Amino acid sequence: MQCLRVQHVSLPRPAGSEQETRAFYGGVLGLEEAQPPKSIQGLDLIWFRLGNQELHLFREDPVEDPSRRHLCLEVADVGVVRERLVEAGYPVEETIPIPNRPRFFCRDPFGNLLEFTTILGDYEAAENG
Fold first, then answer.
1. Residue 2 falls inside a structural domain
2. Nearest by Cα to 62 from 27, 12, 128, 127
3. Cβ atoms within 10 Å, residue 33
4. Does a structural domain hold residue 62?
5. How many angstroms separate the CA atoms of 55 and 9, rounded?
6. Could you tell me the residue range of the domain that residue 50 belongs to?
7. CA 26 to mean position of chain CA atoms
8. Strand, coil or helix: what is 111?
9. Torsions phi, psi for 82 (to 5 deg)
10. Is 35 a member of any domain?
11. What is the DSSP letter of 68?
12. According to the model, what pLDDT value does residue 45 have?
């Protein structure tokens, strides 16, 4: 298999959460919403652009025990994103540092775990240098 890229990531959100989904992903994180194809618009999906990839939020009943499974978003300035999340009332979770990759975790309004990082350089060179 020749994998060209990750095309999209899908995360669950509860029924009736359209406004909260758009407020968090579009408002707080500033992602651009994209229209799903007409052929699947009846599936209650909300899509956002992630650079040249996509984030798909689909309707699913919430789980009681949130997982550590996550996606990581590389952002231009991880500090700015942290400030926006904290100002909007979303707690951030510190984690084990990686050289040249400042990072933190945050859960979206539905319990999905998101990691945010800024790539400043090669972590291997920093560890071995």
1. no
2. 12
3. 13
4. yes
5. 5
6. 8-128
7. 11
8. coil
9. -55, -50
10. yes
11. S
12. 96
How many domains in the chain? 1
**Residue with tokens 């406004």, as numbered in its chain:** 19
Whichever domain contains 76, its CATH number is 3.10.180.10
> Are the C-beta atoms of residues 51 and 84 closer than 8 Å to each other?
no
Tens-digit pLDDT profile for residues 58-76:
999 877 777 888 999 999 9
What's the pLDDT score for residue 3?
A: 80
Q: Quick one: tokens of 88?
A: 């909007």
CA distance 118 to 99: 11
pLDDT per position as a tens digit, 8-62: 999 999 999 999 999 999 999 999 999 999 999 889 999 999 999 999 999 998 7
The answer to whether residue 3 sits within a structural domain is no
Residue 124, amino acid: E
